[in-house]
Amino acid sequence: MLDNVKNGKLSKSKFFERIWENFFSKKFSQIPLLGLLLHFSDLHFAGSRLRAGWSVLTPLVVVGVVAWVFFDFFNFHSKELVFSVLVGMIFWQWFQATLSQGHRLFLDQRHFFKSLQTPREFFVPALVSFRALLAIPGVILVVLGVGIATQFSWAQGLLFILLILFWFVFILGVTYLFSTWTVFWPDFSHGLESFLSLLLWLSPVFYSGNQIPDDFRWMLWVNPLAWFLEGVRGSLNLPHILSTWICVLLFGLFSVWTLLFGFFYFQKHQKELLALI
């Protein structure tokens, strides 16, 4: 291969792609979870030259546009509220992107799913992990911005990391459930779009909890997404109204319950899934 590069028959980018395919990719694919991660990566980045670079470029564009809209267009100069909106947007995009692909996972990948030699329990975690890897650069970018705009302690940073872990567990459980329900009830797929639209505006994504009128603040206490977003904002010293520690406790318990329920539901109905798809 080196001779082909020197003779101009093989570009440097193709040279490194060949090395990846012939050496690293084959070895990684033998590890169940990593092999599935590579599968979802190839599906998502098919034909893309930037590939994972989009996971960095996209949040940069989002942050730039939101900053321009708030600071220049609306002449809005509260950095804390701007970052509060960015936090909501970044995590909502992570949630929506995972569910948009995940709820039809068994149907869209039916042939691959049926042919799996590795335990099928790895299939959903692989997709959720891949989506998490795409979202992490945006989360890091926003956290760095918050660190510049506000001051938060190491204890608050650890609390933020704990919430991220609970968030991953929550999305994993929800994806197990939704992907299974879509197979059993095809109309669930269509209803999910309306549900997500409703949930977007009922959750403090584009606003913080302290902007909600007192008569409607009870809705925050019955919405798990509000527990998470308020907890994250509290851990980053951004505007919030619910107690950060109570949010962490409530969301942690709910996320673990969601994962256990979703996983065992999938386990119980796995044979029916294979028959239906």
Describe this structure in words.
This protein has one domain. The termini are far apart. It contains 14 helices and no strands. With 277 residues, it is mainly α. Helix 2 packs antiparallel against helix 3 and helix 12 packs across helix 13. It is globular.
SSE succession: HHHHHHHHHHHHHH
Poorly predicted runs of 5 or more residues? 1-6, 19-30
| Structural class by SSE content | mainly alpha
Number of helical regions: 14
What is the count of distinct domains? 1
Beta strand %: under 5%
Number of strands: 0
State the helical fraction. over 70%
The major β-sheet equals:
none
The gyration radius over C-alpha positions equals 21 Å
Query: Per the principal axes of the C-alpha atoms, what is the gross shape?
Result: globular
Overall pLDDT score: 79
Terminal Cα span: 43 Å
Supply the key terms.
277 residues, mainly alpha, 14 helices, 76% helix, 0% strand, disordered N terminus
Brief synopsis:
Helices cover 76% and strands 0% of the residues. The chain is mostly helical and 277 residues long.
What does the secondary structure layout of this molecule look like, with pairings?
Blueprint: H1 2-6, H2 12-29, H3 32-44, H4 54-73, H5 79-102, H6 105-108, H7 110-114, H8 123-149, H9 154-184, H10 187-202, H11 218-221, H12 224-235, H13 244-268, H14 270-276
Helix pairs in contact: 2-3, 3-8, 4-8, 5-8, 5-9, 8-9, 9-12, 9-13, 12-13
